[in-house]
Specification:
The chain is of the alpha/beta class. It is built from 6 helices and 5 strands; from the N terminus they run ααβαβαβααββ. The protein starts with a helix and ends in a 16-residue tail after the last strand.
Length: 172
């Protein structure tokens, strides 16, 4: 009888102790956690706030912006990059002023957590923002820039096809 009481008391204390340990651990272990997509969600809000709904970007940037915006943004690729969606391609092609999205080098660390392979992601069809704006200057096309932090959107004053924008893999 005494042995049964000792065993029962031991089991009760073990269960209570385990619950307290798990509760204490989960409360302190996860306190610093947050939404890992926060920088991209903030960028989406800034893009939408600036009236940007369509554009061209690197494959992984386009994918994540489309996905996290739940389709409100229609971002596609250009040139040699893989096509993601014929419907999105069409929406961007028929847009009156699509943006061209670039990941600034200063955002490489955040970019690595938001997109993928930050050393490879610069802009549509591997073109940098500087190369793209130089092309716009050559063509005599004005533009404005919206800086969202992890993405910079260059919006030409007129719509340009990837071919007109001199993307390396674009065809007429």
């Amino acid at each position: 009888m005494v042995m049964a009481s000792v065993v029962a008391l031991s089991v009760i204390l073990a269960v209570v102790g385990r619950r307290k340990l798990i509760n204490a651990e989960s409360g302190t272990f996860t306190t610093g956690w947050g939404n890992p997509d926060t920088p991209t969600l903030a960028a989406i809000s800034k893009l939408e706030g600036a009236g940007i709904t369509t554009g061209y970007a690197n494959y992984f940037v386009a994918y994540k912006l489309d996905f996290l915006s739940q389709g409100r943004l229609k971002i596609t690729t250009a040139g040699y990059e893989n096509d993601r969606s014929l419907a999105i391609n069409g929406a961007v092609a028929h847009s009156s002023r699509p943006a061209w999205l670039f990941v600034p080098p200063r955002e490489a660390t955040v970019d690595g957590t938001q997109f993928a392979a930050p050393q490879l992601i610069v802009g549509p069809d591997t073109v940098t923002e500087a190369e793209f704006t130089a092309t716009l200057h050559q063509l005599g096309v004005g533009y404005r820039v919206v800086d969202t932090g992890i993405v910079r959107a260059v919006i030409p004053n007129k719509a340009l096809t990837p071919y007109e924008a001199k993307m390396p893999g674009a065809v007429p």
